[in-house]
Structures
1.
Amino acid sequence: MGILEKVNYPEDVKRLSISELYELAEEIREFLLYNIANTGGHLAANLGVVELTLALLKVFDPPKDKIVWDVGHQCYVYKILTGRKQKFNTLRKFSGLSGFPKSKESIYDSFDTGHSSTSISVALGFAVARDLKNEDYDVIAVIGDGALTGGLAYEGLNNAGRYNGKLLVILNDNDMSISKNVGAIAKYLSKVRTKPRYFKLKKAADSLVEGIPVVGKNLSKFVRKVKGSLKYFFFPGTLFEALGFEYYGPIDGHDIERLCEVFKSVKDFERPVLVHVVTQKGKGYEHAERFPEKFHGVPPFDIETGNHLSDNTSKTFSEVLGDKLCELAKRNPKILAITAAMPDGTGLSKFAKMYPQRFFDVGIAEEHAVTFAGALAKEGFKPFVAIYSTFLQRAFDQIIHDVCLQNLNVVFCVDRAGLVGEDGETHHGSFDISYLSLIPNLTLMVPKDTKEFEMMLEFAAFYQDGPIAIRYPRGSCKQVGFYDEIKLSEPEILKEGKNLAIFSIGRHVSMLYDIISKNKLDVTLVNVRFIKPLNTEIIKRIVRIHEKVLIVEDNSVIGGLGEKIKSIAAEERLPKIKHIAIPDKFIPHGSISQLYSMLGMDKGSLTKVIMELIES
Ligand SMILES: Cc1ncc(C[n+]2csc(CCOP(=O)(O)OP(=O)(O)O)c2C)c(N)n1
Ligand SMILES: CC(=O)[C@@H](O)[C@H](O)COP(=O)(O)O
Ligand SMILES: [Mg+2]
């Protein structure tokens, strides 16, 4: 019988010897591999934190002690060891375990995460709350080197650096974001990792200086000052020390004994401490060690070959962006491409290879990406900024203040719009139409399929100035096959009929087109295309001549297309209007088709609604 079979909770981990913990680590790796090969999920990061998680559970006491996983995609080992092993085969499935920490799922999950770089702010908030309530527990933020490229992390560090209580930040440095980590901080960490001698010397100097005796109160102040200056004169100290943290590291993050030793020794420090651990992303699975970016977030895969098992052969919207932007850039030297740490996910890797001078991966820094693009546009360039809908939420103010206010030529490629599936509530792109359509000067387009997406990219590159956003979903969708020329604000009327008018956008257009064609319905179908500027005249004309209207959109019911059409219709004779959209709730994880059917947005439910409307 294996050790993992008997281990379910942190108490079970605490009982094990160090050598048993190593055995357990290997069993956990097998367990992760076997399960994630079936469910899909964030494999590489989890393989990298097995020993780190075991050491944390050996030394600390969750749920009393609060562990905050930054992003949270690396929390699987923690889930397995905090009572969720039996349900692990349901990971990321509808009604199953979430792929991220969820306080409603377990008392061991101290705070919900999914977006990057929040952990230090959260941990500091917990620490201050603890002090205010006179309670006693440890607070630990675990943040990756990629997450440390996000500005919010520095806001947290800056604030925490002047805090006087107990706070532990663990920097899990695997030299990788999803892709290779980028920027000055990544370079700095690499120096720290690869020059341990320098840091050993620094440690020796620290002890030497600490050895200078201190006598008398005033003298003590003076000597401390001198000590500090001496230390920083000879050895500039780590970035984190300069920010007010006690720094320990770099430490081998796969050495359980050493990790436990260090955690025990810093546990009672009444000040902020940062422990820098070095781990290997994908550890223990050859394919993931060699290609950690391919195994960051994986669909189900074959363990032997490492091949992803995905039946989708059509080109995704992201791939279309990559290809089309390369073509557009050839024709227009002013075109640039910007990503916030997602060159693969957004499809821009190809552009990066073809135009390295015109490609910018700015790290997990969506706010910066947008402001940076604004300035490039001001200087005559045409930046295309590709960011997932959910992460672009971070840059709401920058879109308004640094781009739209000055009517700058920035094109926002808003990927993963609408429901994304298995990543769930933190990742669905349910709000972009709501938060973008209220911004003056912005043109907002939604393609019905990938061919139309190409046409919109062409339109954005050559025919339209000012800020433009194009929102499109994860993956691919069925091609409709008919394409009117793209003209500013003009919808595409795909069918004209008498019994019902349907307004829709995005991937629902092809679904609706199929329903109408298959059932030979006498119905008008409008592919709205431009949410902004919305064509009020055409909408009014269509509303006037139909008794019944259906609006279908993959955006929140609040602030989406439906509300806009309803307010236009209100100025006319009001027809009977049915609006199908994402409800005003956070939508859980599951496959997109399961979620659509739960929300009545799948083909079957839409067919039923259309028939009922026609017959009513
Ligand atoms: C605001 C935000 N932008 C982008 C992402 C997508 N994302 C998830 S994990 C990740 C890389 C994180 O790297 P790191 O923190 O080093 O963790 P690792 O996977 O290397 O363990 C990125 C870019 C995100 N979750 N949140
Ligand atoms: C954890 C995280 O935020 C990313 O890894 C995200 O899961 C990627 O999503 P895609 O798989 O849609 O690129
Ligand atoms: Mg990393």
Note: DSSP finds 25 helices and 17 strands in the chain.
2.
Amino acid sequence: MTYRLEQLTVRHLVAGLDAPPALHALDLVIEPGEQLALIGPSGAGKTTLLATLACAHKPAEGRFSVFGQDPWALSQAARHRLRARLFLAPQAPPLPPRQRVVTTVLAARLPHMSFWRAFASLVKPVDPDAAHAALARFGLGDKLYSRVDRLSGGERQRCGLARLMLSNAEAFLVDEPISALDPALSQHTLATLQQEASERKATLVCSLHQVEMARAHFPRLVGLRDGRIVFDRPREAVTDAMIAALYENEHVQPPAPHPHDTPDRIAVGACF
Ligand SMILES: Nc1ncnc2c1ncn2[C@@H]1O[C@H](COP(=O)(O)OP(=O)(O)OP(=O)(O)O)[C@@H](O)[C@H]1O
């Protein structure tokens, strides 16, 4: 299996001290090639869970295995090798602003290169065709030689996903990949990610705020709230009532009308 979490609790460090748990006693098993969406309100723990699956957070309690190994029982070098089999795509990828897109995308291959080849590739991209092909899958083929800081937020997000295409990862951990995209691009982007994962038989775990997209695209939905798994079901078994309960009381109240925005005032204003 790809992941096994048993009673896993994760805390962030705040000012050097343990904060209250961001994830509480999670039990989760993810098989190779599975595609699942993490949904839940803001602060539910989706990003923390993805980072934990990427071996970026050491759990405080419980048992955790990736490809049958406990990463935190391994040497640092072995854990590094294990991490190279995983790819975490953050919502806002930290891409070097002054770099060309081609160099940034090809950086996905750095963990698998020798030091000198990696160094040389930073000076002169070694395989621009591969970078172009990966970018083209997200509609960004024409941005190959653009500077990263000239990309829009949505383009930067897709640039991060193009990196994923060039990695050798066996598990894709993708955090809100469509948060900066319009509906048509969102559909295309999710379909591209899912197709790549299927072809490689890679595991795909994707957090989404767009619940209907999650229900439409993913066969398994995991609902998180307050750091706990509220449900973990095939999509057919997830009802509207379960979704409503997951997000209950999470709606932000609309702001009170401004005293000057009364209909009278608007009508008067409209005369000018
Ligand atoms: N670096 C951090 N340091 C301290 N606490 C953190 C840190 N990152 C997240 N948290 C806390 O952990 C909890 C889970 O946050 P997380 O970012 O995982 O939620 P999320 O479901 O991804 O939220 P969103 O949908 O808003 O991105 C929250 O209470 C959050 O305040």
Note: Strands lie at 3-14, 17-30, 35-39, 61-66, 86-89, 171-175, 203-207, 220-225, 228-234.
